[in-house]
Write a structure and sequence with these properties.
This protein has 2 domains: 23-55, no CATH class; 56-279, 2-enoyl-CoA Hydratase, Chain A, domain 1, CATH 3.90.226. Helix content is 32%, strand content 17%. The chain has helices at residues 38-43, 59-66, 93-104, 138-154, 172-191, 206-209, 232-239, 250-255, 268-279, and strands at residues 26-28, 35-37, 72-75, 110-117, 120-127, 158-164, 196-204, 218-221, 261-262. Strands 3-4-5-6-7-8-9 form a 7-stranded mixed sheet, sandwiched between helices. Strands 1-2 form a two-stranded antiparallel sheet. Bound molecules: zinc ion (ZN). Zinc ion is lined by residues 29, 31-32, 34, 48, 50-51, 53. Pathway: Lipid metabolism; malonyl-CoA biosynthesis; malonyl-CoA from acetyl-CoA: step 1/1.
Length: 287
């Protein structure tokens, strides 16, 4: 049985010719566990080909999905956070910011940009959860405020895509003030007769839910997104009873009247376009 006997000893391939499969070639859906190629996932708008699970994505991906030819002009791209409270927990706040910036390549937890979506001029503000849990501090609030000023000046509709753990602890009261500030600015947008659409993605919680995310002329969400204010454990302990199944999912929130509709990410651009065409003034850029 000579074919069972190894003729040559050891590994013969030199290191220089070693074949390695590139990182991130495969994607395993965390919901249905099916494995697919990463580029297939991307081509399907970062949603699972099998079960429609919506993978969490950031501003770069949403801008690419929504802006025509991925062309846009970013507003206030270099705004970064100060450290008004000299806050220190496991590390000091400026170090935490610097580390998050290095890790993500972002300046803070939101990017705001102006461009065209199916030829309609629009401002899109999109949160990045990768940056300190998409937490809202002064920069997030200020960038939203300035995006709204820009909308009013140029007579443009606004879309905010939320994905956030809530207010940023390290800025404490300054973070909470952003709730009032963004809400007041949105009231000015409303007064100017310009539409605001809020898209809630997984997860949208805390001070973001309690301010701009729920103040849209239309509040819409991605399927199965977690939407809430406090977490389920806190609520359960406070009210002392079990919560219904599906509590805090987009579908549950829709059924209870807090959302207008749920949209699959692959239909997002077209649905937003149809909506804006219905509500924008005919002599505006709605055409
Ligand atoms: Zn899946």
């Amino acid at each position: 049985m000579s074919w069972f006997i190894r003729q040559e000893k050891g590994i013969q391939t030199p290191t220089s010719q070693k074949k390695e499969s590139p990182d991130g070639l495969w994607y395993k859906c965390p919901s249905c566990k099916k494995v697919m190629l990463t580029h297939e996932l991307q081509a399907n708008y970062y949603t699972c080909l099998n079960c429609n699970y919506h993978e969490k994505i950031g501003s770069a991906e949403y801008f690419a999905i929504l802006f025509d030819n991925n062309e846009f002009e970013e507003l206030n791209p270099n705004m970064t956070s100060a450290d008004p409270l000299k806050f220190v927990d496991s590390k000091d706040y400026p170090t935490r910011i610097a580390e998050a910036q290095k890790k993500t390549g972002l300046k803070d937890a939101i990017r705001t940009a102006y461009g065209k979506m199916n030829s309609i001029d629009i401002v899109i503000a999109c949160m990045d959860f990768e940056f300190i849990g998409g937490s809202m501090g002064s920069v997030v609030g200020e960038k939203i405020a300035r995006a709204i000023d820009f909308c009013i000046e140029k007579r443009l509709p606004l879309l905010i895509i939320s994905r956030s753990g809530g207010a940023r602890m390290m800025e404490a009261g300054f973070s909470l003030m952003q709730m009032a500030k963004t809400s007041a600015k949105l009231a000015l947008l409303d007064k100017a007769g310009l539409p605001y659409i809020s898209l809630l993605t997984d997860p949208t919680t805390g001070g973001v839910t309690a301010s701009f995310a729920m103040l849209g002329d239309f509040n819409i969400a991605e399927p199965n997104a977690l939407i809430g204010f406090a977490g389920p454990r806190v609520i359960r302990e406070t009210i002392g009873r079990d919560l219904p199944s599906g509590f805090q999912t987009a579908e549950f929130v829709l059924e209870h009247g807090f959302l207008d509709f749920i949209v699959h990410r692959k239909d997002l651009k077209d649905e937003l376009t149809s909506l804006l065409k219905m509500i924008l003034p005919k002599n505006g850029n709605g055409k």
